[in-house]
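JOB MANIFEST
job_type = single_chain_structure
chain_count = 1
residues = 335
[input]
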Amino acid sequence: MGTDDHLDNEIEVSAQLTQSGVTAKAKSRTVSAIDRLGGNLVDFLNTKIEKRTSRDRAIIRGEKQLMDAVVKSAVERIEVDPAFADRAVRAHFHDVLENQENKDGVVSAALEDLRTNPPTGAEATTGPDELSPEFQSRFGEYAKVASTDELRSRWGRVLASEIRKPGTFSPKVLRVIDELTPQTARHFERFCGFRIGKSVPIILFGEINFGTALSLTSSELIIDPGQGGHVLNPSTITVDGTVARLYRFEMLAISVPADASRQANKPKKYFDSDHRMRVYLLSPSGQAIASILPDRSEERLREMQEKLRAYYGQDTSIQTWRPNPNDREEWISYD
C-alpha cells in the first residue's frame, strides 16, 4: 500500500496521538477535529488526512472539475487583463490562506494542551467517536478568525476541553467566549483562580468591585451577585462526637464546629447571621469556560482552611472532606 493512501496516513496520525497521551475515543474525536479544521495542519503531524467515504470522494472529484473550469476561465481572462490575476489573488486567496493559518494555529494549540493535560482514562474511553457537527461547524467559524496568539491559545483550549468532554461548549458558550474582551478575559481568569467548584468564596477572593462585577455579569460569566453575593447553606456532620457545619463545594467540602464563633477582630462579611458562607457563583457559561483554566480547587480549599482557623481561632478544628467513592452521601476527611 502506497504512502499516499489515506488509511496509512490515518494510522500514522493515530500513532502520533497515542504517543502524545491521547487514546481511544478521545483520539478518534481528535482525528475528526483535525480532519474538519486541518488544511495544512497535516504538516504539523507530518501526514495527510483525506476524505474517508466514497460520497466524500465523489464530492472532491466534482469540486476539482469545477475548479478546473474556473481556472481555465481565469487563465483566459488573465491573457487579456493581467491585473485581474493580482486582484483575484488578493481578494480571495489571501483570506483563504489567512483563515487556514488561523485554524492551524488553533488546532496546534489544542494538541499542545492535550499533550500537557491528556484526557483521563474515563474521558478517553467514553463519549461519541466524533465531535458533533454543530460544534465543529460553529467552532470552525471562530477558529478561522483567531489571528493572535492569545486567541489561538484560547480557542485551542476550548477544542481540547471539548475533546476531553464532548458537550461542554454549547453554541451560547462559544458566543460568550467570542465576545470576551481581553480585559474581561483577564478579570475572569484571575477570578477563577479562587474558585472551588463553581463558587468563589468571599473569604478567599475578597469583595468584588462594582466594575469587575458589572463586566463579569454583563459577559454572562457570573450570576448577578446583588449586594454581598450569594450564600452557601451548610449541612451538618458529626466529627469526633461534635456537631459541625459542612460547607459543600461539589466534590470538596470543609467543616467548622457548630459552636465555633468569630474572633472579635474579624469581619462579619464572610458569613451571614445564619452561618451561611457568602460566595460568588459562576454562571453555566462561566462554568464551561472555567473548564479550560487551571483548577486549583484543592489548593484553595487548603487556603480557606487556614483562613478559617485565623477567623475562628487557631485551635478550631477545621477539616477538609471528599465524598466516599462508594457512597456519595458519606464524606471522608482527608486531613
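[summary]
The chain has 14 helices and eight strands.
The CA atoms of residues 222 and 282 lie 4 Å apart.
exit_status = 0
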